[in-house]
Amino acid sequence: MSEYKDEPLRFGGKEFKSRLIVGSSKYPDPAIMQKAWEASGAEMITVAIRRMNLATGGSLLDYIDRDRYTLLPNTAGCYTKEEAIKTSLIAREMGLSEMVKLEVIGDEKTLFPDTTALVEATEVLVKEGFIVLPYTNDDPIIAKKLEDAGAAAVMPLGAPIGSGLGIRNPYNIRIILEMVRVPVIVDAGVGTASDASIAMELGCDGVLMNTGIAGAKDPVTMAFAMRHAVEAGRLAYLAGRIPKKLYASASTPLEGMPELI
Amino acid sequence: MQIRLNGKERDVRDGITVVELLEELKIQPERVAVLVNQEIVKKPSYVSAMLHDGDAVEVLTVMAGGRGEIR
User: Fold this and answer.
1) How confident is the model at residue A255 (pLDDT cuts 50, 70, 90)?
2) Is the predicted pLDDT of residue A246 greater than 90, yes or no?
3) What interface predicted TM-score (ipTM) does this complex get?
4) Given this model, what pLDDT does residue A187 score?
5) Active site residues of A
């Protein structure tokens, strides 16, 4: 077997072969960003809505091959549900997508989500016909509420945005995986390849990251590493790991051991 | 008359419409979203949406955050 054929990642009536979703910010320059996207194998890129630089008329759209990548507009920088809802409507008006990575930030220092506003914004946007992917805490109760509000997937953080601290509460992520039926995509906190593998080994359906790739010394190589880490973690999850034990158990049977001395 | 365009004062001719403003800025309408006084202007209304003195106009697009800005 040289290749394993996995199920695609499915949500909101869409299918993706890659279980890695990447961002578009903090790259040293656009050329490196494009190479990193390619190396990551990702099919989905999160993008922000901002003022256009009117002197140049430039747009990130100039750098994204939309036949190849699905845009996932986000509501980064929104601190109220009203801002997040309006940003989603703007993204839809631009014809970007019916999908939205919904962020309602509760605090500037931690960038933790305001989960009550998040649930309310999810309800509103689902009624508006959006495919809502909310960025949330690693809180199973909130994850369930988001699912009940109609979220197409839930995206708990592994650790604060941009922190690179990895999956700080794998047990909560496991509980979230048991509590919701929609896909669970870890969003934020991944610092290196093993973090992405851990998320996938837990049984998560995907990983979304930006800084882990864009902030690496060599973003293109890190993107490649993350691609393999997500795939390796996914396969390990599907394969089923051995249980952890305190003592050794010999791999080679003792039966047939000769008398040696 | 004067409008506030992406946070900066700008002189424009009286009665200019959204589509005419975008033409003046050499911006293709399909690449942007436009807000006038915080309200989203729908694409089909660009031709008829007339701006007024003191209007706050936002021309938005898809951008990357952080450093490494798209120009």
Assistant:
1) confident
2) yes
3) 0.88
4) 93
5) 101
Minimal Cβ distance to A25: which of B32, B42, B65: B65
pLDDT at A53: 87
How many Å lie between the alpha carbon of B53 and the closest alpha carbon of chain A? 20
Return the SS3 of A179: helix
B47 touches chain A (CB under 8 A): no
Chain B within 8 Å of A65 (Cβ-Cβ)?
no
| Cβ pair A58:B60 closer than 8 A | no
pLDDT confidence of A2, banded at 50, 70, 90?
A: low
A86: closest CA of chain B, how far (Å):
8
Could you tell me what percentage of chain A is helix, strand and coil, using 3-state DSSP and rounding each to the nearest 5?
Answer: 35, 20, 45
DSSP class of residue A6?
P
- The two beta strands, A131-136 and B2-5, are unpaired
Minimal Cβ distance to A60: which of B25, B43, B63? B63
In a 10 Å sphere around its CB, with 0-12 CB exposed, 13-18 middle and 19+ buried, how is residue B2 labelled? Answer: exposed
Region B51-56 average pLDDT = 93
Residue A232 CB neighbours (<10 A): 16
CA distance A96 to chain B (A): 9
Closest CA to A186 of A133, A130, A240: A133
Q: Is A228 helix (H, G, I), strand (E, B) or coil?
A: helix
Q: How far is CA A93 from CA A70, A250, B33, in A?
A: 16, 63, 7
**Beta bridge pairs of residue A14:** A11
CB A49 to CB B62 under 8 A?
yes
* Whole-number Å distance between alpha carbons of A10 and A150: 15
